[in-house]
Structures are given as structure tokens and as C-alpha cells.
Amino acid sequence: xxxxxxxxxxxxxxxxxxxxxxxxxxxxxxxxxxxxxxxxxxxxxxxxxxxxxxxxxxxxxxxxxxxxxxxxxxxxxxxxxxxxxxxxxxxxxxxxxxxxxxxxxxxxxxxxxxxxxxxxxxxxxxxxxxxxxxxxxxxxxxxxxxxxxxxxxxxxxxxxxxxxxxxxxxxxxxxxxxxxxxxxxxxxxxxxxxxxxxxxxxxxxxxxxxxxxxxxxxxxxxxxxxxxxxxxxxxxxxxxxxxxxxxxxxxxxxxxxxxxxxxxxxxxxxxxxxxxxxxxxxxxxxxxxxxxxxxxxxxxxxxxxxxxxxxxxxxxxxxxxxxxxxxxxxxxxxxxxxxxxxxxxxxxxxxxxxxxxxxxxxxxxxxxxxxxxxxxxxxxxxxxxxxxxxxxxxxxxxxxxxxxxxxxxxxxxxxxxxxxxxxxxxxxxxxxxxxxxxxxxxxxxxxxxxxxxxxxxxxxxxxxxxxxxxxxxxxxxxxxxxxxxxxxxxxxxxxxxxxxxxxxxxxxxxxxxxxxxxxxxxxxxxxxxxxxxxxxxxxxxxxxxxxxxxxxxxxxxxxxxxxxxxxxxxxxxxxxxxxxxxxxxxxxxxxxxxxxxxxxxxxxxxxxxxxxxxxxxxxxxxxxxxxxxxxxxxxxxxxxxxxxxxxxxxxxxxxxxxxxxxxxxxxxxxxxxxxxxxxxxxxxxxxxxxxxxxxxxxxxxxxxxxxxxxxxxxxxxxxxxxxxxxxxxxxxxxxxxxxxxxxxxxxxxxxxxxxxxxxxxxxxxxxxxxxxxxxxxxxxxxxxxxxxxxxxxxxxxxxxxxxxxxxxxxxxxxxxxxxxxxxxxxxxxxxxxxxxxxxxxxxxxxxxxxxxxxxxxxxxxxxxxxxxxxxxxxxxxxxxxxxxxxxxxxxxxxxxxxxxxxxxxxxxxxxxxxxxxxxxxxxxxxxxxxxxxxxxxxxxxxxxxxxxxxxxxxxxxxxxxxxxxxxxxxxxxxxxxxxxxxxxxxxxxxxxxxxxxxxxxxxxxxxxxxxxxxxxxxxxxxxxxxxxxxxxxxxxxxxxxxxxxxxxxxxxxxxxxxxxxxxxxxxxxxxxxxxxxxxxxxxxxxxxxxxxxxxxxxxxxxxxxxxxxxxxxxxxxxxxxxxxxxxxxxxxxxxxxxxxxxxxxxxxxxxxxxxxxxxxxxxxxxxxxxxxxxxxxxxxxxxxxxxxxxxxxxxxxxxxxxxxxxxxxxxxxxxxxxxxxxxxxxxxxxxxxxxxxxxxxxxxxxxxxxxxxxxxxxxxxxxxxxxxxxxxxxxxxxxxxxxxxxxxxxxxxxxxxxxxxxxxxxxx
Length: 1308
Description:
This protein is α+β, with helices and mostly antiparallel strands. About 40% of the residues lie in helices and about 20% in strands. Strands 8, 9, 10, 11, 12 and 13 form a six-stranded antiparallel β-sheet that branches. It has a six-stranded antiparallel β-sheet with strand order 16-15-14-19-18-17, with helices on both faces. It has a six-stranded mixed β-sheet with strand order 31-33-35-37-36-34. α29 (about 975-990) runs antiparallel to α32 (about 1085-1095). The relative contact order is 0.03.
């Protein structure tokens, strides 16, 4: 049996209840439940004490019934009851006294469910052993307190599930009864209590204490005291040893403690505790440590002291500026510093540039380094988000402190980086902004941002403290403002009193002096003021008048001036008004009159603008001409003074010259009339006129503007209309915005073309209605105020829908014309291509036929009887040989005729292409460095065969003027020059072949000056001035020192021309007469084209002819002397093809002089050693066969490909890749199936760049029937080195191949 320690039996229940901090009272259940005792804790809560007394006196209610219940606590009666949101526990002592004690405030969830609460175990009950069904087998025991609340069941579950066997206490069933009883009482207690049991001081605690453990719970259960209180274990052990020796409770102690929360943060707590020994038989078995949370009391003491000290410091401030300094100084000096980890103080002042009208100036801060973005030195409280501007704006409107939190984003964490935290050095999570205003009605004078203690929650106590702090700041600032205002008022009163005394003294002195000088000053002032002043006596005589009066009236300066003398200055019409004013003066003593006076001729005094109003006249644009017909308008004010007898003894008159005012009024009326006329004109105008603000609001507009925009006229003073926002189509709104931005930026008028959403309709001449989008030309003109700032803009809308519709129609027609022209060019290109391909085969076959027949004729002539071989078996057949030789000659002539016809057809195709280019203004002149004699010789040789065939003597002469200029090469377009020569030679041979005398000559000359009619044998046709025929001229004129005029004359002995026939020459599709085409053929384009080609080369063409005596056609072109470098390149190119010409001439010498150059079995190889093999890419089988045969005959190997893809494949079998074929050059057709020549050329050049082919660049010559310059340039751009246009003859091909090869060799 356990006996209580000595002395404990003497402790009474009243002594125990007096020391209990929980409100407790005792009721005598035997005397109608009267209140017999209330402990000090209950009496301190006056409100709660009064409610208990009232309840017991009323003897009604469920709480009363629970208190007075006669049954003992048990299953049928709850041990606890909730009253006034406090849970009460009822204990019956000696079946007489009901002890009612509180156990804390009821949780929120419980208050919502009324009185249906879970019952709590009585502090006197023991832990019960509850056996599970399997307890008899495994011996496990589960210990749970009976009838615990649900929020405690989780803690009890921890107790039951903890492995107590691994602790010094051992399993639960083996605990001593005293420990079980004590732990059962501790669990039921609402106070934080911890038990230290045994020699190891093993820790046990209740749920209230677990909340102080933070994250260490439940790991502390079963641990030693060192684990429970690592920082205070020594102090606790010392207290334990003291109490154990005395076997009584030790003195209470208090310390500050930091609870580690689940989120890793700490919470500051103040705990008061004592040590009570657990004894049995005078032996201490353990200790109980009850703990009381005194945090609220300690914090309140600390905060109250801070408020008192702060108030004592701030009341010493004498002005607002020193108030801010003392406030930040006091906040910095406060201890502990962790109560204010961060402080930022701003003063609020007026700011005219801010939209809110407020700006903040930094007065001081704590924990903020210089330049940190959270505290800029100047903060404008407008729409800016700098720092905490948005939060400060809200604080200005808030009547209480504004809470900022990192959790909801109101306190941005980015602004907290780099701060120097005071106190714990922990970053804050919450802050408040206090708006400091002297009174609630006044404006905010300061904003204080305080960082909250990171180790205390912002609970009700904290909120009340901040509210008191804000109130303290408000009251102290109000006293400071009042003190400052009172001091200012005192200074002002003192200064005003001193000023008033000084002014009174000065006034006395001034009045004394003014009394003696008043008359003199009046006279002086009267002489200088612009108002005419005069005094008159009772008889009307003027006794005094200043100079201004005399200038205004023009009256003579006599004293006195009679009334008749004054009236003589007034014009006749106003004299009656003056007389009537004098009569009125007798009655009213004050009269105002307006009259006119004459300006004498000698009056040179100008009319004066009224002081202060002249600029207004200038701003109004009024033209105030001082000449007003020699009349002044005068406004007079008269005041009479009566004598003692009532009669007038003196009159004062003031006259003002209002001539300019009268004219200003007339001018203003005229301006108003003009404005009215302009307004009427605007209403009748055919354009929309408007006036708008810069934001697009309409101020005024005429009817046309409303009609264009599709708006109804409204009262703009009552309704805000922004027409451009919904009248302009959406696609043109950016144009409108850009134009208005330019208007505001540059301050200059702007224009823009806009589309409106209304439709434009019109009826054409056929009666059909046209509907199109409405286009307007909008004009924007800025309107500025007197300071030059743009306030509004005005302008007009001109309807340009008709012009836009017409422009669109013209564009459509242009597109159709361009498309038609493109189709025409495609047709011409196709026709040219299809004609040139067979012509090339015809010419080459005819050349081959002539070569073969010529060789056969040589054989016949060799074996003929006259050939010198008498033993020939054909000696007897001389007649047959002669007949065969004649047949060969006839066949050669026929072949030559075929060539002539083919050349004629080629010229027709060339003429058609040239005309197409001339019509399209696309013909260009491309000068290159050439020998003009060679060009003329080439044209000459083209007609040698035909001339011999028709027995025409064709000669060529180079004039001495050409050789005297030492001309070797010139820069000109050889193809255009040759084209003119061919046209003239064609005509000369055509009209000479049937005459008795058949002579055609070419004369070539040169000159440094432009040829004229008087120095030439012909009369030149005037140059065309129409811009359509100007063509593509050279980009810059030729310098005079390098300019050469090259002239050619083609003279024939044909039938000649009459004067009428000469007039029709050089025109399109026109021949000399109607019989020319029937007799000679032709298209009538040759001379027309020749004229245009010479004019494009800055030359001219002319004719001299007499009927029956032949004709002379002459033309000249402008050429340029090339540079020395260009001459060297031309010489190298000529040397490259020199052997071809020699071979041609030697071969022609061996055959008949009448035959052309042929390819029949040449004596030696025509091509040079650099051309060994040729790849011929051609899809036309006939051209393939003929060209291949002629190239083989020329002495080179030939490989044939039908299209581009096949050509790329065959390139892989040449010596440029891994094959054996010696590739020297490629002849590339352009128009081919599968892959065209240009694509193939590009592929070859790409492969060369990639290094797929060995050796130097492969020469590629495009061979095509596409003859237009654009097509030639396209081929060269694709990678071709040169272009040869079909039809061509083999010598031309060989010359082109040699030239290209030489050029590439030189370039490398």
C-alpha cells in the first residue's frame, strides 16, 4: 500500500484550487446547489464569473441540470460539458461538493455540432486493459483510455502502437500501477505535462505537450530527458535533484523555447514549468513537469514596452521631418531586433506628374542594403509596378494595416533576395503596411512597411499589437502635426504683428507726405495716363484738361475753354447727344455718353491699342487699320458735384478713345459672318469635313462625312462618337493608326487612303449600276493651342472610289494585255523553234550534198578525156562524162538554191523576232570588242554563192578614212550590225539580178564626227522621237575622245526608185510599190527594222536613188574605241580561230571557185588538238545524225545523248570521271524531254563544284532554236559558256567551239 509523503495530507482542496490557473468553482449539492467557492482564476475573468453566477441564480438550462445531477459520473452521464465555448469537468467530492473546473476553449468544430461531444475520461479514472480476442494466445495487450475525444484518439493510437518494450519502461502491461495511474491522469489533462520515470528519466507526455515537441513527436516518447530538453537538461536535472531531496514540488521557472514546425520553421514560445516528484514510500520514482504557455503574456509585455518607448520618443518630434527620423531611429534601437526584422519608411507627398497625385520619398529603412529594388529612393504611386507600388496604392485606400504574404504573392519573393535580415536572420514570410495619417479624415502622410517576426504567427494578439502600433503612430503624428502647425501659426502671428506695426508706421509717414503731394501727383498722373481728364465749372467752361484730353478731342489748348469751343470739335450728328448728356447730368449727376470728334489734319498722334488687349487682337487675326475716316470714337463718363445750395459747381469728365474697340467689334462681326459662311460652305461641300480629338472622338462634321461613314447625325455634346473605329475596314486600321501617330509626332499634315465599310455605287453610261468598296483620301491637319501643343485634328474625306475603280479596271486590262503579250511571245518562240530546227538540218544537209557533189565532180573531171589521162577506159565515153559533169553542176546549183532559200527563211524568222522585241521595247544593244572588217566580210561571204549564181559582181571596199584612223577593233553589237548589212545586201541582190548591169558593192568608212547629208552620198532619214522606239540605250554616253562613227554604203545597179517610192521606204510592212511583193517577194520589214537598229545604236540610215540608175543605201552607227586589255583579248580570240579560216580558204581553193565551203573529206583535221571528243546532247534524231557525221568528218570523236539525264550518265564514262572517252566539249540542246539542257547544265556545274569531275572546267555550248536575247542570257546564267542559234553551218560551229576552248584555256 502506497502512503502519501509527509505533509501532503495537510494540503487542502481550497489551497489546490487557489493555485490552479484554470477557472474553477464549487457548488454545494446538498443546499440547492449554491455557489460556495470561485477560485482566483475564475474571478479574474469578470464576464465568465458573472455568467456562472447568473446561471446558478436562475437555476435553469442544460448546464445547470448537468451541474446538479445526483448520479455519479458514469456511462449515462457525460464527464464534460461545454458552456460559453469552454469545456468543463465535474467531479463529486464526498458526495457533497461538485467541483466544476474548465479544461480550455472548445474547438471550432465542436461548437458547430452543439452539445453532441465526445466524452472525456475523468482525471481520476485508470487505464483499462482491453483484451483482444487473441489475447489469450499471443499475450498482446492494447491500452487505450476510455471514451477519449476523436482528436485524442490518434495520440492514444500512437501510445498503443509504440514499441515500449524497446524502452527502459518495458511493455505497457508491466508498467507499475503508480506509473499507469499517473500517466492516465496526465493524458486526461489539457495542460502540457511530461513525466520522467525511473533512473533513466524516461520521457512520457500527453497530447498537449506533443504540440510543443513539433517534429520531434512521437520520437521523444520513451527517450531520456536529454532528448526532450537538450538545451535545458542540466537545469532540469538540477531542479529534479532539489525536489527529490525535499520530496516536494520545486519552484516554477520560465524559459524561451523554439518549436520546430512541420514545414521546417521555428515558432517562439515562452514556457513556465515546475518539477513535482512522484514518490512512493519516501522514495522518488519519477517526476512530473507541468508546463504553462506564457508566450502571450511575455509577448504582450515586450510589445507594450515597445509601444510605450516608441510613444515617448515620437512625442519629442517638433516637425514631420524629424518625426520620420525619430521613428526609424527608435525602430532600429528596439530590442529584441527580431521583432522588427525589416522596416521601410516612406513619406507621402503631392506629385502633379503622377496619375494618383501621390509620390513616396524614402525616409529610412532597416535590413535593406543601398540600391535594393524593394526600397527605391523615390516611388511614384501611379500605374507603375516598381517595388511595392501596387501594395502601397492599396494601403492608401485602406483604413487599417495591409497584410502582405509570400504565400498569396502579395509579397513577391523576388524582392526579398539580398536583404539583410535582423534578429534571427530568417527571411520573413509576412509583412504589414501601415498608412500613417494624423486623423482618419486626413490624407496619408507616411507609409511604414514592417516585416513580421518569422518565428511568430500573425495571430489575433499580433494583429492587435499592429493595430495598436498603427494607432500609436497616428496619434503621435497627429500631435506632431498639430505642434508643427501651432508653431507655424505662432510664428505667422508674430511676423504679422511685426509687419502690421511696421506698415502702420510707414502708412502714417506716407499719408503725411501724400497730403502735401497729392495735387502735384494728380496733375502728373493726369498728364501721362491715356484717358482724357478735364474739370468744368458751373458755367460749363473747362478750367483744366490734360494732354490726353486735348489729343482725343482735338480742342485748342486755351484756358478756359468755352462750351462752344468744345462743341465745335464734335461732328454735327452727335452734338445733340452731347447737349442731352449735359441736361441729364443736372438730374442724375452721373452720365455716360459716346460721341465722335473730328481728327484735325495735323493730328499725327496714332490710335493706341488698349493696354493688355493688343495681343488678343493679334491672336484673333483682326486687321485694325488706324485710319478710320478722320474720326475718333470717344466714350465719356461725366460726374457732377453739387454745392451747398444744390447747384452744380464742378464737373469731372473722363474721355476714352474707343476707336479701335469700335473697329474690333466691327471686325469681329465680320469674322463671325465669315465663319457662318464657311460653315454653310462646309455643309454644301462635296467632301466630308470633320473635327476630332486625338483619341478619335468626333467634335463636328458636315452631312457628307456622315453619309460617307454611314452614320446618323446626333448631338455630339451629348453622345460620344468615334467614327473611324467602326467605319474604317479592319485591314486599314493599322494605316490609320500609323498616320495619326506620325501626325502627333511630327506635327505636320498627313494623308492616307482608307476604305470605309459603306459601299460606293454609280451608274455607268449603259445604265448598269456599279458597286465597289468606298475609297477615301483622308487628310489630317493638326490643330494646336496657344502653347503649340496638338489638341485636336481636322481634315476632310475625298471620295476617290471612282478613280480606284477605274485604276482597278486599268490594272485588269494591263494584266490581260501582258498575258496576251506573253502568249504572243510564246507563240513566236515556239514558231521560231520549230522553224529553226529543220532549217539547221536543211542547211547542213545541203552543205553535205554540195561537198559530195563537188568531190564527185573532181573525180569526173580527173577521168574525163580532157583530164590528161588518155588511157582511161572512159575515153570513148566523153559525151557521157560531159553529160554527167553537167548533171553534177546542176545538182550543186540546186543545193546552193536550197541553202539560199533556207537563209531567206532564216532572215524572215529573225525579222519576226526583231519586230517582236521592237514592239515590246525589249531589244537591247550589247556591245563587244570585234573587228568591224571581219563582221562585214562575214556578211559579204554569206552572199558570194548567191551572187555568183545570178552573175552579180559583188565587191567590198574599205575606204581610206577607215585605215587612217588606225582602227583594229571597236566596241559595237556585231549581230545588229550584221543584221542591217544582210537586209541591205538581200535587197540589193534581189533588185539587181534581173538588170542588164549587175554590180553590187559594199563600201566601209569611219569618221570622228557624225555624218551629215551634205558630206554623204545619201539623204538620212530623220531619227524617230517617239519614246516607244527608243529601246534599251546604253547606260552612259560614249566619251567624245573614244567615239567613232562607222559608216557602210551598199550600192547596186538595179532598177532604182522613184520619188514616191522613196517616201514609203523604212515603214512597217510597206514596200516600194504594190508589185514588189508579187515580183520580188519579201515582207516589207527589212528596211523598217534596219532603221530601228541603226537608231538604237545612235546612228541613222538613208537612201539615194534615181529610177533606172540603181540605188545607194547607207547607214552609220556609233562605236567606241576599246581599252588595250579588251583589244588583247580580241586578238587572242581571233588567233584561236585563225587556222579554221585558213583551212576553209585552202579547201575552197582546191574546189571550184563557185562552190561554198564544204566538209567533204578535208585534207587535214579542222579542229585543234585541244578538242578530241565532243558529247552531243540532242533529242532531234535528224540533227543528231547530221551533226555527228560532220563532227566525225572534222576529226573528233563524238558521243550522243538524247536528253539531260542520259548526258549525266554518259559523263560518268568519260575521262573526266572514270571512263575512257576523251571529253573536250559538250554541245547542249536546250529544249529536250525528260530533262532540258539548262537543268542538265546546272547539274554539271554543281557536280564540278563538288569535285566529281577531273580536270578543268568542261566547255558547254548551248545549241538551240531559242533566239531571243533573254533566252540566250538565261542559258549563260545556267552555266553555258556560249550559245549558238539554229540554223547554223558546220564552219560556224567549229569556229564557236575553237573560240570557247581558247577562252577557257586563257582564263585558267
